[in-house]
Specification:
single chain; about 20% strand; alpha/beta; about 50% helix; three-stranded antiparallel sheet; Spore Coat Polysaccharide Biosynthesis Protein SpsA, Chain A; eight-stranded mixed sheet
Length: about 375
C-alpha cells in the first residue's frame, strides 16, 4: 500500500506539471511579439552543414526566399572538402543568381564540427547581425523579419525560436515529432519561466556581432556538445535578455531509423544530465503515462487505478492538442494515439542516459565531462568500445 500511495502522489504531481505547462503555453502565445517601424539590419545567415539531410535542397531554398526588406547573405560551411553539400550550394547559386550565397570549407578546431564551422563563417560574414540555424530546418518567407525584429531592442542579446517536426518518413520519425510537440516544447515553456531564461534552442540563434565578441566568439564552446544551450547561457551572463520568438521553424525529419533516433535521444539526455544535473531529476514529472501505468498496476488495476491512468492520458492529449494548435503541427493530429508509446520510450531514454558518460556522435565517440564538455576518446579505446 505505501508504494501505491507514493505512486499515486507522483501521478498527481505529473498532473500538476501538465496543468502548469498548459498555463505557460497559453501565456506565451497570448503575449504580443515586438513590433518595429525602424529599418531592419542587414543579416548574415550562418548554416553549418555535414552531409545532406532529408529534402536538403528544399530546406536551403526556404532561406533564400525570404521577404526581407534589407540585404542578407547565406553562408554555408563544411569541414570536409568532399561534402556533397558543396555541390548542392553550387546548384543554389545557379538557381538564385540574385542572392548572396557562399560556401566555405572550415578547418576543424575542436570536437564540435558545427562550432568549428561557425568560427570560420563568423569571420567571413559581411554583416553585424548573425543568424545561426541548423541544416535540417525549413522556414516560411516571414522568418527572417520575425527573428530579427526583437534585436531592435538593445536589451535583447539573442533571439531563439521554437521548432516542430515535419514530413516524417518512418514510424520512428513520427515518434520523434510527437516528442518535440508534446514533451520537449512544453518543458521548454516551463523551464524558461521557472528555472532559467538563459538558454537557447538549436533551431535558430540570432545575435549581434557585438554580443558574440562580448562572450569571446564561438571559440569558447568549440568542445561542448550543447552549443546552442551554451551560447544562450553565455549571452545571458552578460546581462542581455534571451528572447523567445513565437516563430516556429520546421525540422525535416525524413527516414529516421530507430537506432539513429535512440542514440540521438540518449545522447541529448546524457548531455542534459551532465550539463544541468539539478534539472535532470525533475524530468520524470513529464512521465505521466508510465507513472500512471505503474500506479494502476500497484492498485491491481482497480477502478481508482484505471481512473488515474485515464486522467493522465487525457491531460497528455489535451496539452498535446494545445501545443499542436499553437505551433501548427501536422503530425500530432494524425498520430496522437501513439502518444502513450512515445511517453514510455521517453522514460526508457531517461533511464538509459543515467548510465555512463560516453556518447557516439557523427561516427565518433566522446566522453561527456562536467558542463557538457566533449573529450574525444583515443582511437584504441573507441575501437574497443565499438567492437
Amino acid at each position: 500500500m505505501p508504494w501505491s500511495l507514493l505512486l499515486l502522489g507522483f501521478s498527481v504531481a505529473t498532473w500538476l506539471f501538465w496543468l502548469v505547462a498548459s498555463w505557460c503555453i497559453s501565456s506565451f502565445f497570448a503575449k504580443p511579439q515586438p513590433q518595429t517601424h525602424a529599418p531592419l539590419p542587414t543579416v548574415s545567415i550562418l548554416k553549418p552543414v555535414r552531409g545532406l539531410d532529408a529534402e536538403a535542397y528544399e530546406n536551403f531554398c526556404s532561406f533564400l526566399e525570404q521577404d526581407y526588406p534589407n540585404d542578407y547573405e547565406v553562408l554555408f560551411g563544411v569541414t570536409n572538402p568532399q561534402d556533397p553539400a558543396l555541390k548542392l550550394v553550387q546548384r543554389l547559386q545557379r538557381d538564385f543568381p540574385d542572392r548572396k550565397i557562399a560556401a566555405f570549407v572550415a578547418p576543424r578546431r575542436g570536437a564540435n564540427d558545427k562550432v568549428s564551422i561557425l568560427c570560420h563563417l563568423a569571420q567571413q560574414a559581411a554583416n553585424d547581425v548573425l543568424v545561426v540555424c541548423d541544416s535540417d530546418m525549413r522556414v516560411t518567407p516571414d522568418y527572417l523579419r520575425r527573428i530579427c525584429t526583437p534585436l531592435q531592442d538593445p536589451a535583447v542579446g539573442l533571439v531563439t525560436c521554437l521548432y516542430r517536426g515535419e514530413r516524417p518518413k518512418t514510424f520512428t520519425a513520427r515518434l520523434e515529432a510527437l516528442y518535440m510537440v508534446t514533451t520537449f516544447l512544453p518543458s521548454v515553456f516551463v523551464g524558461r519561466r521557472y528555472l532559467s531564461t538563459g538558454f537557447a534552442l538549436g533551431a535558430t540563434n540570432a545575435l549581434r556581432r557585438e554580443q558574440l565578441l562580448e562572450i569571446g566568439g564561438f571559440a569558447p564552446i568549440l568542445n561542448h556538445l550543447a552549443d546552442d544551450y551554451q551560447l544562450g547561457v553565455r549571452v545571458a551572463a552578460t546581462g542581455h535578455r534571451i528572447h523567445f520568438s513565437d516563430y516556429v521553424a520546421q525540422s525535416t525529419l525524413g527516414p529516421t531509423t530507430f537506432r539513429e533516433q535512440w542514440q540521438r535521444e540518449v545522447r541529448w539526455a546524457k548531455c542534459t544530465r551532465i550539463s544541468r544535473p539539478l534539472e535532470y531529476p525533475g524530468l520524470p514529472l513529464t512521465f505521466s503515462t508510465p507513472v500512471a501505468l505503474a500506479t494502476a498496476a500497484s492498485l491491481g488495476f482497480s477502478p481508482l487505478g484505471w481512473s488515474v491512468l485515464g486522467v493522465s492520458l487525457v491531460l497528455r492529449w489535451l496539452v498535446g492538442w494545445q501545443m499542436a494548435h499553437h505551433t501548427h503541427d501536422t503530425v500530432f493530429p494524425r498520430a496522437w494515439f501513439w502518444l502513450p508509446l512515445r511517453d514510455l520510450l521517453t522514460a526508457a531514454v531517461w533511464c538509459a542516459a543515467l548510465v555512463g558518460q560516453e556518447v557516439k556522435w557523427r561516427g565518433e565517440r566522446f566522453a561527456l565531462r562536467k558542463g557538457g564538455y566533449l573529450q574525444p576518446l583515443p582511437p584504441k579505446k573507441a575501437r574497443e568500445t565499438t567492437g
